[in-house]
Amino acid sequence: MPNEYRTHTCGDLNKTQVGETVTLSGWIYRRRDHGGVAFVDLRDAYGITQIVFDPQSAGAELIDKVTHTSLETVIRVEGTVVARDEAQINPKMKTGEIEVDVASMDVLSADIEQIPYNISDESIPEDMRLKYRFMDLRTERMSRNIGLRSDVIASMRRRMWDLNFKEHQTPLITSSSPEGARDFLVPSRVHPGKFYALPQAPQQFKQLLMVSGFDKYFQIAPCFRDEDARADRSPTEFYQLDMEMSFVTQEDTFKAFEDVFPPLMEEFSDYTGVKYEVDQGPLRRITYADSMLKYASDKPDLRIAIEIMDVSEEWAASDFGVFKGIVEKQGHVRAIPAPGAAAQPRSWFEKLGSWAQKQLGMPAAPGYITWAEGGFKGPLLKFISEESVKSMFERAGLKQGDSLFFVAGKTPDLYKQLSPLRVRIGEDLGLKEENAFRICWIVDFPIYERDEETGKLDFEHNPFSMPQGGMEALETQDPLTIVGYQYDAVCNGFEILSGAIRNHKPEIMYKAFELAGYGKSVVDAQFGGMIKAFKLGAPPHGGWAIGVERTIMLLADTANIREITAFPMTQRAEDLLMEAPSEASPEQLMELHIKHVNLPQAEETAVA
Q1: With contact defined as beta carbons under 8 Å apart, do 462 and 486 qualify?
Q2: CA dihedral over 423, 424, 425, 429, signed as positive or negative
Q3: What pairing do the DSSP bridges indicate for beta strands 166-167 and 216-224?
Q4: pLDDT for res 481
């Protein structure tokens, strides 16, 4: 039975249909009047077709009707496909070789309110776009991005199925768990004073599936965290391709990722209209220690080939009291190579220094030494021997025409300055590779760190990771030297994956928590379900999770998560379209055993 609304979509027609009578339905996107002839761009989910209201075919009455119909009104037209004149062909449109000569038109939605803005206007502020998100999603940019999201998730599923993973769903209402972020709590109506939590991740459930014998699990999992907003993460929820597998080593989980992610990126690598080069497996591996030394970050952007190096020894032997003093107090001096910087004008060095002070909080502009045509130059040169300068330039692989920048301090504050400074120097000097996805593994994360203020030992990363060396390492090594079978995958400066081989042995888990000051009773209380399962036979297992939004952001070449999410929150965790969060009625609060009170020096909140 034919569809009464359309014979074709607005992205279907081409010269092969010239002469056919067609029916199209869609939104009036643009309208142009030319001497009694009206041209309309009709838009639907599949594209745009130009339709023409000519007096000979449509008649004056119909032309008057479409001329006085608001933009974004939904209409149905019937007409004949005609070829455009050669000069009028639009090669940027799929339907650019034809137009439809309209004979009749029906308005399918009543013109009740005037549209708040023209969706073809790209200058509309974001808060207005979010308030009328259903209109913003009609734009070609947003429609394509949300379509990309669907296609990427479908590809993820296909690739996991091809690797014999089974898709299982884990609960969205569970217990609160200390996983590093704030929980979204859900009050219980039938258990007064008690709360559920939305899961920050399916971590414990997916491990329990391995204990249950399911062997290879995945899901496109929603995760909920009450966080401060960031450009690459929603303040409320995000999705991840979550995976776990049994009887595996770290190498097996790496292979699974390399079979999925690089080919996925290759599949969509030309989404922006430019073909990107994609690193394929086996991927480069960088230890956490090396990554922090060479890039001052555990998520390095390898499109910039600059590697930081430690030059503390050279400056400790110099006459520069500032750097010497920092080294004597257990600090470091690091050097950032700047190939070609000697050709930059003095104003570039001054501008870079000003930026570093204002944006990075550096007390002074980073010092530098330049290898110019007449020899070494720079404000720090008088404090250090030429032999030391030559040694540093040689170690950095630099030559005449290059420079070295120097930054001193204690970690981790030193990293916060070095990492963005390295990126800024690389971008300024044109050293950032374009149109490439550079992917690597960061491995051997430390299990513990020591709080500088309290001196207390605590977990630096995932407490459920198996320590390398197992129980022997926990009993004999300095805890700060113990590394885990924990790993991240990084693409273009974004952490795209986090994973680990899990600590599946109760005795090792108890010992790991004991070193961090948590007794057995605490572990049993917080993670009792998982510990109980491990005591009844748990296979060695491990897995990872890939950030869905970050993957799509990379492919769409956008730094804003709201550009690839259909109905996002604002940075203040508000839904401007649905007006959430909203107040609960007194009846709802009473049913949930909640009393609303004013807390001092805080906004109103609901407490039990």
Answers
A1: yes
A2: positive
A3: parallel
A4: 96
Residue 101, pLDDT above cutoff 70: yes
On whether the CB atoms of residues 482 and 448 are closer than 8 A, the answer is yes
Count Cβ atoms within 10 A of the Cβ of residue 246 and give its class: 0-12 exposed, 13-18 middle, 19 or more buried: buried
d(CA 222, CA 199): 8
Q: Name the residue among 379, 378, 407, 406 with its Cα closest to residue 392.
A: 406
Rounded to whole angstroms, how far apart are CA atoms 22 and 79? Answer: 6
Q: What is the pLDDT of residues 551-575, one digit of tens each?
A: 999 999 999 999 999 999 998 899 9
SS3 201: coil
**Average pLDDT value for residue range 442-449:** 96
pLDDT above 70 (res 213):
yes
**H helical segments located in 213-301:** 250-267, 288-295
Half-sphere exposure of 479 (CA within 13 A, CB side): 16
What's the chain's length in residues? 608
Res 607 pLDDT > 50: no
Strands (E), 347-485: 367-372, 375-377, 403-409, 436-437, 439-443, 448-450, 457-459
Reference 234, options 588, 597, 547; nearest CA is: 547
In the DSSP assignment, the letter for residue 584 is: P
Q: Name residue 112's amino acid.
A: I
State pTM to two decimals: 0.91
- Residue (of 379, 375, 395, 371) closest to 323 by Cα position: 379
First to last CA, the chain: 58
Query: Which letter, b or e, does each residue of 297-313 get, where b requires 16 or more Cβ atoms within 10 Å of its Cβ?
Result: bbbbbbbbebbbeebbe
For the chain, what percent of residues have pLDDT higher than 90? 85
Say which residues have a Cβ less than 8 Å from residue 607's Cβ, sequence separation at least 6.
594, 595, 597, 599
Q: Could you tell me the two tokens for 434?
A: 């374009």
Q: Average pLDDT over the chain, rounded to whole?
A: 93
What order do you get walking across the sheet with 332-338 strand by strand? 309-310, 332-338, 403-409, 367-372, 375-377
CA–CA gap between residue 407 and residue 400 (Å, rounded): 21
| pLDDT for 227 beyond 90 | no
The answer to whether the Cα torsion of 446, 447, 453, 456 is positive or negative is negative
DSSP letter for each residue of 314-364? HHHTSS-HHHHHHHHTT-EEEEEEETTGGGS-HHHHHHHHHHHHHHH--SS
Q: What is the model's pLDDT at position 243?
A: 98
Of residues 474 and 177, more confidently modeled: 474
- pLDDT above 90 (res 375): yes
Interval 147-203: pLDDT, tens: 999 999 999 999 999 999 999 999 999 988 766 688 999 999 999 999 999 999 999
Judge whether 556 and 148 are in contact, CB under 8 Å. yes
Whether 394 has a pLDDT exceeding 60, the answer reads: yes
Which residues, in sequence order, are CB contacts of 154 under 8 Å at separation 6+? none
Tokens, residue 110: 């009543």
